Amino acid sequence: xxxxxxxxxxxxxxxxxxxGFYGIIGDFDRDASMSQEYPNKLGRLMTLFAWALLLVLLxxxxxxxxxxxxNPNRNVIGTVDADxxxxxxxxxxxxxxxxxxxxxxxxxxxxxxxxxTDVSVPAVVAERLGLQRGFAGxxxxxxxxxxxxxxRLETVEIGNIVLHDVRAHINPxxxxxxxxxxxxxLKQLEFRQQGDTLTIIQSYRG
Length: 206
Known about the structure:
The chain is α+β, with helices and mostly antiparallel strands. The protein has 4 helices and 11 strands.
């Protein structure tokens, strides 16, 4: 037989019975339990947020690393020597020279291609740059003969090297965003290669 200790007279006077007293204690216990659960849930949410932030940072760092491997010349700095302007480019892991530059003052990415007759601009990039399509022509590629559209580039820049009124074409068949920097640009410059470094030289007066 369970014996309960009688309530003090004070509690009896205010109308609290034996069962009511234990009900109040139960309410206190529930409130204490809820107050403990809230910090626990908040802590779990903060942990999940921290992991999500860490994954985003790792993805950004990994993407930046891949971009550096593809394009090691994102910040091209030119030099001036006597009557020449020079730009040095590093070859990427695939053996290509990829570099940031500008067309008509807008940022682009170039892939140097001495096998291309003209500067070849993908149609999606040409649209972003606001280039106008001229007459249609044909160009020979590794995949065969394709139709391209003539255009002119007011300025083409790599580092401090700038050429004006460069012949180019718009290529609707290119799905890459790299612009092929062909001989209509490169033939006006001088090249010197040493190891994995290509030096582009522009002679000028004044």
